[in-house]
Design goal:
The chain is an all-alpha fold and 504 residues long. The protein is 64% helix and 0% strand.
Length: 504
């Protein structure tokens, strides 16, 4: 079976002419006959998914760590590029297999053992949905206030209802509607972002930017890891979903290179200008912490407020609908046996509840956002380490059928990968903190015992736990799983998966 339409536009050229229908497929595989194209085509989905004005706000986020312009630029660029490089490596799994990322992960974790990382992946995508819808709501209220059209509670309620409805409807209907929306949103967002840069370029005060004092190495590391969690590590659990449409003999280097380039290009360019804007105006930088998109409209001429707000909101909704689709697939991979559209609808309800909390009760976006990224960034990094090491150990393509069979070569619940992930996560959570989100005050319990200054010391905000979790799980998998992988690859190919095993 194949999806009704692939995001690269290389599998079914007739898809665009087909009426939009409710997608009923779940954990589908891509047959070899439908795998076409070249790695170069990976540039467009990755570029389109990451060209958003939210990238400008990351300049202020970086300054929030107390570092200078050059430190923010170096930390941000390295964090973005390295995190998307990891996505590139995971994307290689897509061309080796024929299933979504969280199904390919079963080769390492076992068919039902993979339910643990699938649940984490689901939490990550639901969290991103919530964050993006909250930003769209806050940005709309800010624009309405600037125009004198209200902007209070009533405006936020209506805005939340509209953007949530767009997201849920698109996520429930599925790929046909989502990808058609994304094509339009990507082009319009890219053009209007360039217009925005041209209109506010005069706001840059180079002397003020250079005067921003520098921070410590620990603060710079904290900014770097935050950028990793906010960009590539936020996509890595879906990194193979695009490349699975490519032929198995496609260049691995090409897959890695085009994924990294496509994902990094827009965020790096937007980060540079965002750092310049935030460094030029401390007031703007502080405003971005509470309303990352809406604050950017405060320096615009009035005539451009509405076009910018519409495009900014659409770009956020565009990201949210991709997340709600992926979160539904993650729920299916975790073992929930319902139609895909019902899984997406359930996620939409959770997204709305979380958005209501952030918009009306949280009292500040940045603290909750940073807490979310660093907290979930740790188990995602631990999963990434296992996945990357498992991929590095393999010399053959995945066996499609056994990815869906608990009794196949990949097993049901092998003990080492889940235990390694849990151990790496426990260590990682002990090395991260976030005081702005009080519900995360339990973290950082290893900073004192390891002589790193405790929860208020110099290393408290370096977010070391994300990197440590990735390294522990990566090295642990290389050491403990080599013999298991060799045994799997020595077996003869299994029969192709049938409809009944796709539900495993």
């Amino acid at each position: 079976m194949t999806l009704p339409r692939d995001p690269l536009g290389i599998t079914d050229n007739r898809a665009a002419a087909r009426p939009i229908q409710l997608e009923t497929h779940g954990l589908d595989v891509i047959g070899d006959a439908d795998r076409r194209g070249t790695p170069r085509m990976l540039f467009w989905p990755w570029f389109g998914a990451n060209v958003s004005v939210l990238g400008l706000s990351y300049g202020a986020f970086a300054f929030g760590f107390g570092i200078s312009f050059w430190q923010a630029l170096v930390a941000g660029t390295i964090g973005i590029v390295v995190s998307f490089l990891l996505c590139g490596f995971v994307s290689v799994a897509g061309k080796r297999g024929s299933a979504p990322t969280m199904v390919l992960s079963r080769a390492a974790y076992g068919v039902r053992g993979n339910r643990l990382p699938s649940v984490v992946s689901w939490m990550l995508t639901v969290g991103w949905e919530t964050a993006l819808i909250s930003l769209a709501t806050l940005a709309t209220a800010t624009v309405f206030t600037s125009l004198g059209w209200g902007g209070g509670t009533e405006t936020k309620v209506v805005a939340l209802m509209v953007v949530a409805a767009l997201t849920v409807v698109a996520g429930v209907i599925g790929f046909d509607l989502i990808m058609r929306l994304q094509t339009v949103i990507t082009v319009v967002t890219g053009v209007l972002t360039l217009v925005y840069v041209g209109l506010v370029a005069h706001q840059v005060d180079w002397d003020a930017v250079k005067a921003v004092p520098g921070g410590s190495a620990q603060q710079m590391i904290g900014a770097l890891v935050f950028m990793m969690a906010g960009f590539g590590l936020g996509w890595i659990n879906a990194a193979a979903d695009y490349s699975r449409y490519l032929p198995r003999d496609s260049s691995g280097r090409g897959v890695i290179g085009w994924t990294t380039f496509g994902g990094s290009l827009a965020p790096v360019l937007l980060l540079v200008f965002g750092v310049l804007l935030a460094g030029s105006s401390p007031q703007l930088s502080r405003s971005i912490a509470d309303d990352p998109i809406g604050a950017l409209t405060t320096i615009l001429p009035t005539w451009f407020l509405v076009p910018f707000a519409v495009v900014a909101v659409l770009s956020l909704v565009g990201g949210a609908v991709l997340d709600i689709y992926s979160s539904g697939l993650a729920l299916l991979s975790a073992g929930l046996r319902v139609p895909r559209y019902l899984a997406a609808l359930w996620d939409g309800c959770l997204m709305i509840a979380g958005s209501i909390y952030i918009v009306f009760f949280a009292g500040g976006f940045l603290g909750q956002f940073m807490g979310f990224l660093t907290t979930l960034g740790v188990p995602v990094a631990a999963w990434s380490g296992v996945m990357l090491a498992d991929l590095a150990l393999r010399r053959r393509n995945y066996d499609d059928g056994d990815l869906f069979r608990p009794y196949g070569r990949y097993g049901d619940v092998p003990l080492v990968p889940p235990l390694l992930t849990l151990a790496a996560t426990a260590v990682g959570w002990g090395l991260v903190t976030n005081t702005a989100a009080h519900w995360l005050g339990w973290q950082g319990y290893l900073l004192g015992p390891l002589g790193l200054g405790g929860r208020t010391g110099a290393w408290a905000y370096a977010n070391l736990g994300v990197v440590v979790a990735l390294v522990i799980s990566f090295l642990g998998t290389l050491l403990l799983s080599r013999r298991r992988v060799r045994a799997q690859e020595a077996l003869a190919p299994s029969p192709a998966p049938g409809e009944e095993v796709l539900r495993a």
